[in-house]
Structure formats: structure tokens, C-alpha cells
Design goal:
458 residues; mainly alpha; Fumarase C, Chain B, domain 1; Fumarase C, Chain A, domain 2; Ribonucleotide Reductase Protein R1, domain 1; two-stranded parallel sheet; 19 helices; 5% strand; binds arginine
């Protein structure tokens, strides 16, 4: 019925019930209640301070809003679909409770700048949490790196044995990725952290409001500089989902590795039982559900990014109701990213590393062939010639079902006269790893340097 609507004045017919349901956002935007109330309190205080509404009304409003906040938190607030969204649910209840004064709250404000404010306030807090979870994950990766500092494993390209590396070095690769994800989140925070309130519906307001005072109350360092832009862009949310998509891509790659590493063929790691499930038919099974689900959930977050980009792509300025579709993808992204990070941090911390299988695999697949080539280069051969000679020695090993370590000096010398006794020491897995002594390389001392840097917050 048009009468109970806050905008009912120009309507003579009631809203169709299904239209009401279809257009309402209360089911999902009720999670903005805290931000909505916080924003309204700041707005009301500003209105009073500017003499736009009487101070006694401000007091009633603030008191009424605090009561509503308590009611919502106690689960005693009836959200109504016919009041469409969180903004009107709260405002209507306020007027019901305190009468006339409540009806003055919306002076100099529109739901358009109100919703933009609520989302920014909400996202600001959530980014802080995402960053905290990222720090937890980085910490558990560093812990694993420290605990297993000298464990060797095969490094892969094309998922084929490439060169031996330290497991700790592999963990640090992810640390670097998550550090960049953290930096992206912190950077996004700066653009979220701007006050849009005061833009009104689209053009500003005729009342002598003080936007800076509102910003100060709500801890925004700056205010937006164009009213149309303030109410019509959601680029800050897109930016968050985009940074989240990259973050999930990293988690998904790591998931994929953990899944491969826990197969019986690899047996590089054991995920703790708490992060796996069994099979209802195959008694031997211990399935890596958690990394599989995180890999799967990456798809949702990419989907959310596409959804919001597509919602926004052809909207004329300023606000359009299409934009109500921003919330579900945003909220879903926040929930998914936080959940994935939390579960990953715990899972990594509890993961057990199978030193023996990793070590065995590290030396297989001719993983030290590059070291042999580098050896010949040190003896004076051009790298391309060395590459050719070692290629032949690998072919010889393949034909004779041997590993490089098993070749005798006489056999080595079939491929180059430059080989002498010191070849054996040059191609152990340990020697191979420690020879990669460059900044960012896998040599133990370099890995220790990087762990130290990370621990110092660099
Ligand atoms: N529920 C709306 C949304 O989320 C609030 C803004 C409504 N503004 C409007 N002019 N209908 O976008």
C-alpha cells in the first residue's frame, strides 16, 4: 500500500506484491545496518550543528537510532519487504518510535548518497579484515619455510622436473604473491576511504551542510569532489573484487599444487585429517576437499567480478536501480575471500611435509642437467655447446635407464673431454640448490635472507 511507503506521496495505487518482492533488497542489504545507523548519527549531528534541524530532534534521533541498533543486534527487529531496503526500514522505524523528529533525519540526504556511504563504510572494515587474514596466511607460510628450511624438492616447469629447489623457497614464492595481494588491498582501501555523503540524489543539496564534519565523525580523510560521481560509481567495489580475484587465483594455484602433492603418486605433503574427508565407498580415501573447494570458489569470485563489471558497463549517470545488484557479488566476494584465507592459513600451518619423498623426487628426472651444462661452461665451453653435450648425455641415460648421478667418469667423457672427477660433487641436489646463490635464488642462505626480510615486514 502506497501509504506506508516513505515515498508514497505521488502514488495512488499500491505496489504490486511481486514487484515489491522483486525490487526489495532488504534480504541482503540488512547486513549494512550498523553502517547505516552510524552514517545517520553522523548526518543528524551535522544537521543539528549547522542549525538545519533543532538540537532536541538530533538527540531524539540519536537515541532512537541507538535503540534500533540494539534491537537489530538482539534479533528483535522485524525487517519488512514493503519497506524495500535497510535505509527505509530503519528510517521508518525511527519515525514510528520518535515521531516528527525522525522525519527530519533525511533532510539534505538521499538514499543514493546514503547507500554509497554505507557500502564504503562496510567495505573499509572488511578490507582491514582481509588484510589481517592475509597476514595470518603469510605467517603460516613463513613458519613452514622456517621449519623446513633445508628440505629439497623438485622445481617444475610444465609440471616436468626442472631443477631442484628448497621447499622453503617454494613457500616464499607464495609469500611474495600474498604480499602483493595485501598491497593491492591496502591501495584499494585508499579509494574506498572517501566520504560520498552530501552528494544528495545527484546534484548536491540546497541545505548548508558540512561534509567535512561528517567525514571527521566517520574517520574519512577526504570527501568526494563531484556529486554525480559520488552516487553513480562503484569502481571501488569492482577494484576490491578485482584484487580479490587475483588473490583467489593465487590461492587456487596453491590449492592445485596441494592437491597434486597429496596424491599417492607424489606424497609430498600430508594435509591434516581435519581438512580432508573420506569416501562413502572407497575406504582408503582421504580427499583434499579444502583446497578443492577453494579452487572451486575462485570461480565464484571471478563470476562476481564479471557480474559487477557488466551491471555497471552501460549505466548512464547518475544512480540507476541496476546498482542495487552491486551488493550480492560484493558480499559474496568478501565472505568467500575471508573464509578461504582463514581456512588456508590453518591448513598450511598444520600441513606435514614428507621430506623423504620430496628429496627422492628432487634428484629424479635429470633435474641437475642444467648444473652439468653450467659445469662445462665453467670449464670454458660456450653454453650452447654445453647444452648440446648434456642433452646427449641425458638421451644416453634415457636409453640405458639411468640417472645422471649414475654415470661413470668414462661415460661422462663420451660427451665432452672437459669432464673430470669434480663433476660428481657438482651435480648433487644440495650442490645444485646452493649454487643458485643470487638475490631471490634458491640457495639456502638466500632463502634465509628472504625469510628475514619478510619477518622484518619488508
Ligand atoms: N536499495 C537501494 C540500492 O541498494 C538504495 C538506493 C535506492 N535509491 C533509489 N533512488 N531508489 O541501490
Amino acid at each position: 500500500m502506497s501509504q506506508d511507503k516513505l515515498w508514497g506521496g505521488r502514488f495512488t495505487q499500491p505496489t504490486d506484491t511481486f514487484v515489491e518482492e522483486f525490487t526489495a533488497s532488504i534480504d541482503f542489504d540488512k547486513r549494512l545496518y550498523h553502517q547505516d545507523i552510524r552514517g545517520s548519527v553522523a548526518h543528524a549531528r551535522m544537521l543539528g550543528r549547522q542549525g538545519i534541524i533543532p538540537q532536541e530532534d538530533v538527540d531524539k534521533i540519536v537515541h532512537g537510532l541507538v535503540g534500533i541498533l540494539q534491537q537489530i543486534e538482539a534479533g528483535q527487529f522485524d525487517f519488512s519487504i514493503s519497506l524495500e531496503d535497510i535505509h527505509m526500514n530503519i528510517e521508518a522505524r525511527l519515525s514510528q518510535k520518535i515521531g516528527e523528529a525522525g522525519k527530519r533525519l533525511h533532510t539534505g540526504r538521499s538514499r543514493n548518497d546514503q547507500v554509497a556511504l554505507d557500502i564504503r563504510l562496510y567495505l573499509r572494515d572488511e578490507i582491514v579484515e582481509v588484510v589481517a587474514y592475509l597476514e595470518m596466511l603469510i605467517d603460516s607460510l613463513l613458519e613452514q619455510a622456517e621449519k623446513n628450511i633445508e628440505v629439497v624438492m623438485p622445481g617444475f616447469t610444465h609440471l616436468q622436473s626442472a631443477q631442484p629447489i628448497l621447499f622453503s623457497h617454494h613457500m616464499l614464492a607464495y609469500v611474495e604473491m600474498f604480499k602483493r595481494d595485501k598491497a593491492r588491498m591496502e591501495d584499494c582501501f585508499k579509494r574506498v576511504n572517501v566520504l560520498p555523503l552530501g552528494a544528495g540524489a545527484l546534484a548536491g543539496t540546497t541545505f548548508p551542510i558540512d561534509r567535512e564534519y561528517v567525514a571527521e565523525q566517520l574517520d574519512f580523510p577526504t570527501v568526494t569532489r563531484n556529486s554525480l560521481d559520488s552516487v553513480s560509481d562503484r569502481d571501488f567495489a569492482i577494484e576490491f573484487i578485482s584484487a580479490s580475484s587475483i588473490l583467489m587465483m593465487h590461492l587456487s594455484r596453491m590449492s592445485e599444487e596441494l592437491i597434486i602433492w597429496s596424491t599417492s603418486a607424489f606424497r609430498f605433503v600430508d594435509l591434516s585429517d581435519g581438512f580432508c574427508t573420506g569416501s562413502s565407498i572407497m575406504p582408503q580415501k582421504k580427499n583434499p576437499d579444502v583446497p578443492e573447494l577453494v579452487r572451486g570458489k575462485t570461480g565464484r569470485v571471478y563470476g562476481n567480478l564479471m557480474a559487477l563489471l557488466t551491471v555497471m558497463k552501460a549505466l548512464p549517470l547518475a544512480y540507476n536501480k541496476d546498482m542495487q545488484e552491486d551488493k550480492e557479488p560484493l558480499f559474496d566476494t568478501i565472505d568467500t575471500v575471508k573464509g578461504s584465507l582463514k581456512i588456508f592459513a590453518d591448513m598450511i600451518r598444520e600441513m606435514r611435509v614428507n621430506v623423504a619423498s620430496m628429496g627422492r623426487a628432487a634428484g629424479q628426472g635429470f633435474s641437475t642437467a642444467t648444473d652439468v651444462a653450467d659445469y662445462l661452461v665453467r670449464k670454458g665451453l660456450p653454453f650452447r655447446d654445453a647444452h648440446e653435450a648434456v642433452g646427449k648425455s641425458v638421451a644416453y641415460c634415457v636409453e640405458n635407464e639411468m640417472e645422471l648421478e649414475e654415470l661413470s667418469l668414462a661415460e661422462w667423457q663420451l660427451f665432452s673431454p672437459h669432464f673430470s672427477d669434480d663433476i660428481f660433487a657438482a651435480i648433487t641436489v644440495q650442490a645444485s640448490v646452493n649454487a643458485r646463490n643470487v638475490i631471490g635464488g634458491t640457495a639456502r642462505s638466500r632463502v634465509e635472507d628472504e625469510i628475514r626480510r619478510c619477518r622484518e615486514g619488508k
